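Please describe our next protein:
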Amino acid sequence: LAQLGKTKEALEYFDKALHQTKGYAKGWFAKGIVLYNIKQFDESRKSFEKASKLGIKRADKYLKEFDQKDD
């Protein structure tokens, strides 16, 4: 959906899916990507943090980028 320009719908889908399955690591990561792409960096960071805690190593790349911006 996000790739089709339907960002709002994509985020609603992720919210619904993640509400039902909070441990869905790939969902948290994908939501983080969508939020990152629309420059909602605070929310994006939160999603990447959850994805990272659930074992998605690719999320760490984005978290490091956020940490560098904070310095």
